[in-house]
Design brief:
22% helix; 10 helices; 18 strands; 417 residues; single chain; 3 domains; elongated; Rossmann fold; six-stranded mixed sheet; alpha/beta; four-stranded antiparallel sheet
Length: 417
């Protein structure tokens, strides 16, 4: 009797006489009756060589087919998405608690609520970090850490519990100290921490700035003329590989010029400038007289163009609205969807017809090559990109499943890399 390969199955039994071959190496059929047939071929091992039963008297043996249907098995693929890193940078200035209704609890609930909060929903797809910042009531050099108190959580996947442990307890003391808004200082420190963070596998890095006020600087607390320092910080962050998105809430929406000099670009204009800087686009130049504000000395630090177009997208929510929380959830979800990639890297390479692959998003099958389906990067044969509605569903938190069966001839259409 022959010996099978790694995964050989037992061969068939002749009707009369001995047993046929049962492995990848040929077995010998028994000599027997005039109507006996040799054993059928056993399944071959990894090499794909079938067993051969030698015919008994009056019979004929059957050979196994190398690489045939008996060898190929359906391949489940592990898709590895490009995981973005986002540090949520939250302004903790006094006005976040002073406005009516207070902006702070609304924003916290929209981000962290276990049922419908944005962070728990997207934590499996985004490495979230967290930093809150509140400026000191005394002046400091711009590069002095004493300028602002930061509470931080390092980025990680499924990080909502760790963030909540730091974010949740933050409150405005009953003594009501004045906490300033040194946004440029906070962006600089947050970008430095992100630049030093080296996850495996790597991913794109972003700051999500949530602020309710025009910024001041560390060296000049009032007026709120820290726009140039904040824009320079955002431009430097982008140059270091850290993008920035901004959402204005509360006071900067309700009172856009509050505390801001008339020579500055304040409120929505400042948010637009930050949004441009955050995506590496030119920033609109302020008025000539802004150069001489107390915050700036005789020269601006940022880079400006006289007629820079609005390229980045600043987001705003008026937290006085009755449905402010729902607006915050919707806006933040849409904003963060921009950083989630719909391209995944598989641990397998497609070697056959990709149209035979079975891909589902959220349990629903999607078609290969369809507008709302999936595509294979033909230059690598292992990168899959979701399209249209499938991409949006995936960004919203749906699971992705990829399977490659055998083709009709029994050959695999994908192999492990």
């Amino acid at each position: 009797m022959g010996t099978g390969g790694d995964t050989a199955a037992a061969g068939g039994t002749p009707t009369t006489g001995g047993t046929g071959g049962d492995g990848a190496t040929s077995g010998t059929g028994a000599e027997g009756g005039t109507t006996s047939t040799g054993g059928s071929a056993g399944m071959g091992g990894d090499a794909g060589v079938g067993g051969m039963a030698t015919a008994g008297s009056g019979g004929s043996g059957t050979s196994g087919a190398a690489g045939g249907p008996g060898i190929c098995q359906e391949l489940s693929v592990v898709p590895t998405p490009q995981v973005p890193i986002v540090t949520i940078l939250v302004d903790t200035s006094s006005s976040m608690f002073e406005t009516m209704p207070p902006t702070w609890p609304l924003l916290y609930d929209a981000l962290m609520n276990e049922t419908d909060g944005v962070v728990p929903a997207l934590a499996p797809k985004i490495r979230f970090g967290f930093t809150s910042y509140k400026g000191a009531g005394t002046t400091h050099a711009e590069d002095d850490d004493a300028c602002a108190e930061l509470a931080t959580v390092d980025p990680a996947l499924d990080n909502s519990a760790a963030i909540d442990a730091v974010y949740g307890p933050i409150e405005w003391p009953t003594s009501h100290p004045k906490w300033e808004t040194p946004t440029g200082h906070a962006i600089t420190r947050t970008a430095a921490a992100l630049s030093a963070f080296m996850p495996d596998p790597p991913g794109p890095k972003f700051i999500l700035l949530l602020t309710d006020g025009n910024p001041n600087t560390c060296e000049v607390l009032d007026p709120q003329c820290g726009q140039d320092v904040a824009i320079k910080a955002a431009q430097d962050a982008y140059a270091a590989g850290v993008g920035l998105f901004v959402l204005g809430v509360g006071d900067i929406v309700a009172q856009p010029n509050n505390g801001c000099p008339t020579s500055g670009r304040c409120g929505a204009l400042h948010l637009q400038d930050l949004a441009n800087a955050g995506v590496g686009a030119p920033v609109h130049a302020p008025s000539d007289t802004f150069v001489y504000e107390a915050c700036n000395g005789d020269a601006l630090l940022g880079t400006y163009e006289a007629e820079a177009p609005d390229v980045g997208t600043p987001f705003t929510v008026d937290t006085r609205n009755e449905n402010a929380k729902a607006e915050l959830v919707s806006t933040l979800t849409g904003l963060l969807a921009n950083v989630i990639s719909c391209t995944v890297e598989m641990d397998a390479r497609v070697t056959g017809d990709p149209a035979l692959g079975m891909v589902s998003v959220g349990g629903s099958p999607i078609a290969y090559g369809g507008t709302d389906g999936w595509a294979l990067d033909m230059s690598t044969l292992y990168n899959v990109t979701l399209q249209g509605a499938a991409c949006e569903t995936f960004k919203g938190g749906a699971t992705l499943d990829i399977q490659f069966p055998c083709d009709p001839s029994g050959k695999p259409i994908a192999v492990r890399r």
